[in-house]
Amino acid sequence: MPTITRVLVANRGEIARRVMATCRRLGIDTVAVHSDADAHLPFVAEAGTAVRLPGDAPGETYLRADLVLAAARASGADAVHPGYGFLSENAAFARAVLDAGLTWIGPSPESIEAMGDKIRAKELMHAAGVPQLGRLEPGAVTEAELPVIVKASAGGGGRGMRVVRTLAELNEAVRLASDEAASAFGNPTVFVEHFFERGRHVEVQVVGTDDGVVVLGERDCSLQRRHQKVVEEAPAPGLREETWRALHEAARKAAEAIDYRGAGTVEFLLDAATQDFFFLEMNTRLQVEHPVTEQVFGVDLVAAQIAVAEGSPLPAARPEPVGHAIEVRLYAEDPGADYQPQSGRLGAFEVPDVDTELAVGTAAEGLRLDAGFAAGDEVGTHYDAMLAKVVAWAPTRRQAARRLAGALRRARLHGVRTNRDQLVALLTDEAFLAGDVSTAFLGERSWGGGSAGVRPAAAAAALALAEAARAARTVQRGVPVAWRNVVSQPQVTAFEVAGSGSGAEERVEVAWWGGRDGYVLDGHTVVAAAPDAVTLETDGVRSTYAVVVPPGGVGAVDVDGPQGHVELRVVPRFVDPADAVASGSLLAPMPGTVVRVAVEAGARVGAGDPVLVLEAMKMQHTVAAPHDGVVTEIGVAAGQQVAAGDVLAVVEPAEDREEQG
Amino acid sequence: MSAHREAMLEKIAALDAENAKAVAGGGEKYVGRHHARGKLLARERIELLVDEGSAFLELSPLAGWGSDFTVGASLVTGIGVVEGVECMITANDPTVKGGASNPWTLKKAFRAAQIAAENGLPTIALVESGGADLPTQKEIFIPGGRMFRDITRASAERRPTIALVFGNSTAGGAYIPGMSDYTVMVKEGAKVFLGGPPLVKMATGEESDDESLGGAEMHARVSGLADHLAADEHDAIRIGRRIVARLGHRKARADAELGAYAEPDLDPDGLLDLVPSDLKEPFDPREAILRIVDGTRPGVGPGANAAFDEFKPLYGPSLVTGWARLHGRPIGILANAQGVLFSEEAQKATQFIQLANQVDTPLLFLHNTTGYMVGAEYEQGGIIKHGAQMINAVSNSTVPHLTVIMGASYGAGNYGMNGRAYDPRFLFTWPSAKSAVMGPAQLAGVMDLVMRAAAEAKGQAYDEEGAAGIRAYVEQQVEEQSLPFFLSGLVYDDGVIDPRDTRTVLGICLSVIDNQPIRGTDRFGVFRM
What we know:
Radius of gyration of chain A: 29 Å
Radius of gyration of chain B: 25 Å
Protein name (chain A): Biotin carboxylase N-terminal domain-containing protein
Oligomer: heterodimer
Structural class of chain B: alpha/beta
Cofactor (chain A): biotin
Largest interface: A-B, 31 and 45 residues
Number of strands of chain B: 16
Strand content of chain B: 15-25%
Largest sheet of chain B: 7 strands, mixed
Strand order of the largest sheet of chain B: 1-2-3-4-5-6-7
Number of helices of chain B: 19
Number of strands of chain A: 40
Largest sheet of chain A: 9 strands, mixed
Helix content of chain A: 10-25%
Structural class of chain A: alpha+beta
Distance between the termini of chain B: 49 Å
Shape of chain B: globular
Organism (chain A): Nocardioides imazamoxiresistens
Strand content of chain A: 25-35%
Pfam family, one (chain A): Biotin_lipoyl
Domain Biotin carboxylation (chain A): 3-447
Distance between the termini of chain A: 34 Å
Strand order of the largest sheet of chain A: 14-13-10-11-12-15-23-21-20
């Protein structure tokens, strides 16, 4: 097999960076492909060569096998690494890569196909003697078999899965899952199996070589929300020796059954109560959570994949896992609002005391960051909302969890809402620390996050804003802030802070006094204040808050303090009434009479569609929709007199967020 | 705590209490009623109007003190920064008799207009006044016309005038928006007409209502008196700020041109220990100066090295003169050291004032004087001539003058040291100050001697007992009338300030002064030699 010299990474974000990091270390050139939305992300900048895939949607870009292959040819790549997701488990793509004379860094197309069809895979595993859960006929499920879960045959990553607890829901769930599977994977086939309320998700890392299958221990990925993994660790806590030995053996059998080559993961459902386990599926690619295995085994799995692909010996790995590694996935999402993906510009993105990035850390304990973004990057909603993976490893599980929680707490993440607080809460949760994990764990608890830190953070923000305003003064620069010779009232700085849970905005007002003796605040002594840092003393305890104020004092203030990060939105002192009406409101441009209303409330309209016609000064004026959307309100009727500035109708913009691939 | 400090803190507490009376305006009931109508108080409007975190130097807060009217005279005036522009802001206090003007209101408003004129400031009037306080109309009506004259003269001098009308501005008051360059009226709040419905009915028989005669909507859409229709009070203030932002105002000397400076060499807090409660005891004004002016800064160039460079330190030592900087701006300082002014001090002051005019440098006068020396030796030495020289120099000097009355300010010393009659740009008083033609005890004593001589001349017996009573009465009355609150009540100063705020107050004043170019004179009156 040829030695690989230039790898095209058919992926994006952190995994593209991760693969390229190993390539660089091995002396291999790298080629990135990127969508337009990703053009400025670090993985593009770091690649030796980059090829643009025009467009943003995955279907136009990262899922276009033809474009990716053309990019490989154009850039002179001799191998393709698919990362995870996108084309990584697309047998046709793997075959096309091989047909093009390139090296495919992954299992054979046959292996991908064998495991790609979940129903066929289960048959294969059954034959190989890998324990599995019986499949149920959707039409023949009995009350005793509830609850059940409906899954897409061709799916992965939780998409299309539905838990059914009453028979009445079953048909609808099957239909919905089938529709979703059809749209997401192009295959509507679904199946049904028993659902364990306190199941654990345990998976085994394998690397298939010409000399047999190497098993690199197991991982526990039970902590999930909406079937998306959030926390992963290795080894899996609390397994009896016979359990993990049996798991490893089952995984080996599974891989051997299809003569598997390269890195793969065999996933099992493990009943927390009995530690019985059942084959779920095999992922024929590198997993998102591969770093925890890398850290406990001290092996670079990307290097292992490349070694297998080019027929060189595997890098050395420890025979047994050492210590414990925990990974969290830092998402741009709002856990308080049903994990809605968030977008925005990352004002700050700093994780403190990182020992290694995108590569295996070799010390006995440490912190690893695999991030797809850097400060200043725009986070969009075209793709997965994961910003980074943060991994801590240490001799014990509790030490690793503490290290990770500490780093996350002190991380500076500005501009988009993240699940950081939830992760910290998870990592410090006593049940989690005791190893009591299951896939139901996240759903059973409320993760709204406390608001204890909001008031002092708002106080710090108010003073930082005042200091920034002082620094920006053009006159009376030497005069103390808010000095008054006749004091009548405090200065009031108002903020809005997104409330926990519902996402409702909460108003926080800070009353403060300035003047000769500096800042005075109820409940705090101000030790120091600057535009970027404020130190407050509260009940004898000093805390310093790092503050980032927006230019001109308008916009979001980010405060990082001992209680974590708080984003506050400055409530402007004044709002131009012209701006205060609901966005999307159509205002009468002049006084007149409504001649005709062209649409009804609830109607969908495109930008420029007439909404109504107004007659004024003997001229008819068409009032058109300013953007695509839905008419949520019609405030007037034909024949009605209106005054200039009256709200005629409201057109709410269409949801511009695309379903992500 | 020193006795001086204890006495000063007591006086400051009294000052705070008097200021609080002005802030309280018409009191809880009327404040509550005003708020219940969804309206903002005068100072709430000002707080919103000025730039966030900027200073507001309130002027004449104690106007009307000691009179039958509420302290503050139902008007708030002061200098605030709006969109980076130093503006004269006036705001009627509608909680005090509906914001009606009394004679003190007028005095305070005129003083504000004078400061705006002398320093080239735009003016912003926050209008809500029921007009004249009718029982005192005889003291208001005729001189009050000047208010409108001042507005249009300001405009003629290209000093923009802005009226934000929140409520009543009727009859004569209607000319405030009427004369202003820019007028903003609050929807459903402003009421601007010459005559209200009853007066119109009486005059012409016409039936009308407030809105059609003077509503904001009417003035914005029909009469054109309002340039802007504000949705509410906040909106009016927002529009007012936008107007100022577009004035293109430029200071004669931008703050950016000033060099770096250090905070004072001595802690301003020490000013509390400085002034003896008995003003007969002198104190070293250098102790005050070094707590007020910029500190010593290492390096070269202006402002570096020495905080205060004394001029003629060995001559006329009862008056300290010298150069310093305050917030980076150069000033010349004249400060009384031993109370009495002799010929040497008067001549030294005369020369120093001339020097400041040669280099266009403002002057700061720090009062603690008992007046010019009397006695045969001094009269023969020409003390009148020399005092006249000093008064000549002070009167004709055209560099801006600032005056702070720290302690005593008696007799012609008040004049020579640039008292109110000599039109300093700003004059502030410490709570420890006293101003009168002479000290109360001396005055009573002089009266006693004069009366005794008169009785003797007439060959009458001197009524010792009656004279003692008169003496005590006069002494007490003069004492009361020489105190800061009383004089501030008469608008004989621009405010009584906490000594620790002196640097800030003067810093604001010097910054305000820089809105106009500074040009010293080369013409004085004849110096009698």
